[in-house]
Amino acid sequence: MADEALANAGLHFDELNKIRVLEPEVSQQTTELKEECKDFVEKIGDFQKIVGTFIGVVDNVAKEVEKEKMKAIGARNLLKSIAKQREAHQQQLHALIIEKKMQLERLRIQHDALNKEESEQNDFLDQLILQK
C-alpha cells in the first residue's frame, strides 16, 4: 500500500530499493535507448570512415580514368594527324607521278622528233653519197 501511495506521488523504488522519480520500466527503457544510441553513433562513425575510404578510392579511380582519357584523346589526335600527313604525302606523290608522266610524254615526243630528224639526215647523207 505504501508503494501505491508513493507511486501516486510519482516516486518509485528501483531494484536496489532506491527512490526514483521515474518508473523502473521507463528508467530501464531510457537506459536501453541510451545504449542503442551509443551503438548507433559508433556504427555511424564506422560508416563515415568506410564512406571516407570509399570516396578516396573513387577519387583516385576518377583521376586515373581522367589520365587515361587524356592519353586516349592524345593518341586519337596523333592518329588523325598521321592519317592527314599520309594523305598529304599521297597527294604529293600523285602530283609527282603526274609530273613525271608529263615529262615522259614530252621526252617521248622529243625522242620521236629526234629519231625522225636522224632518219631524214641519214636519208639526205645517203642521197648525197649516191649523187657523187
Automatic annotation (TrEMBL):
Q: What is its main location?
A: other
* Alphabetized UniProt keyword annotations: Cell projection, Coiled coil
Record-level GO BP terms:
cilium assembly; protein localization to cilium
The UniProt entry's GO CC annotations, sorted and at most eight, read: centrosome; ciliary basal body; ciliary base; cytoplasm; intraciliary transport particle; non-motile cilium
- Is the keyword Coiled coil in the record? yes
Give start-end ranges for the coiled-coil region(s): 79-117
Q: Name one Pfam family in it.
A: IFT20
Keyword Nucleus on entry: no
Compartments it resides in: Cell projection, Cilium
Cite the InterPro entries for this sequence. FT20 (IPR028172)
- Record protein name field: Intraflagellar transport protein 20 homolog
Q: What species was this sequence derived from?
A: Lottia gigantea (Giant owl limpet)
